[in-house]
Amino acid sequence: MSICAVVMAGGSGTRLWPVSRAKRPKQFLTLYEDETMLQSTFSRLSKLDVQFALTICNEDHRFFVAEQLQKIEQKNSIILEPSGRNTAPAIALAALYAKDDPLLLVLSADHLIQDQSSFTDAVSAAIPLAESGKLVTFGVLPTDANTGYGYIKRGKKQGNGFVVDQFEEKPSAKTAGKYVETGMYYWNSGMFLFKASRYLEELKNFRPDIYKACKSAIDKKNSSTDFIRVDEDKFNNCPSESIDYAVMENTKDAIVVPIDAGWSDIGSWSSIWDVSKKDDQGNAICGDVMMHGVSDSYIRAEDSLVSAVGVNNLVIVATKEVVLVADKDCVQDVSLIVQKLKDSVRPEWELHREVYRPWGKFDSIDKGDRYQVKRITVKPGAKLSIQKHHHRAEHWIVVSGTAKVTKGDESFLLSENESTYIPLGVVHALENPGKVNLELIEVQSGIYLGEDDIVRLEDRYGRT
What band does 429 get if pLDDT is binned at 50, 70 and 90? Predict the structure, then answer.
């Protein structure tokens, strides 16, 4: 029976702020390995006979998914969720879209697995159970009494797994300790293997409202672009529910297959510290860091020197515009800072200073009253939208590469050290016709410089 990998790439990873943010969350970042977490998820499938792959994400992240999978030459279809509705509906979309009733291997795009061979062995062991109609979940052998994970209690042996006796919520430290002592409990990994048809049967049985909404949404899908867009109104009416609550806790055919593969959901900075290489004092460092008298800490410098003296058990993370300092035992509360930023309508919860776009990226170098300076990078062959602004004018200076500029009725090329001026209200566009990145400096001036002062007249990426 064929296997279809279903990779769920939603989520915002708020506990890994300020590196992970809503517009560019952890699954699209290189936090631990050379590849992004999304790319690593697909790379670990190399030893399995996977015939087809589906990634589920939202509109904001679709170009991250497409570009990162293209870089590793991964053939893939991308289903776009109009809104987040948790895992039960997301998996239902994949099951309804998949052809010929394959086995669905459901994975999260933001998990770490250090032992590729053990992962492959566990999935292989689960295949006969899934082919027989069982709904398999993978239970991680616990290494400690972790209170950040849900637990699965195993029952009697069945094939290469065990009948699921009980799903347990995230426990207290005392309860987690008792779970681990019994040897009967596993961490709930959120990875699954089952026939598409069996999942849909059980979803229809236990949550017909979710099944009906997803069926209606996928029946009216639009596949005319590089992405699969389901009907927005139908899907937005779907209840939000996890697969555990909707199906796995209700079905009589839930099986847990143990896995011991160095798994982590990389859910906090302390979990990054856990899996990172450390010095003799227990410090894990990344970037330009200088220390004296520091121990058991994680320090990450993304853009400038970070120095630390005489501290212990800290997490220090410095990006271009934000510095986080936290006790390593309190990093689960980083999400509370994110919520405060969101409530205060500050952009740092959502956006980095360096903002990625389908055509490349821009970095806001400086900003003041009535002016803003950006460094813009345009990928080879890419083009910004044909647009105009009501409140600002722009000066462009080419640093490297070649720019094709459209300004009003004229079109011309600019090379290194050449510049042009775009008056307020003039229709314009920027394109990179070359084979290397185009780098330029943009100086904006005007009474309002917000990103919403863009009137797009034409856009090859389908943005409004």
Answer: very high
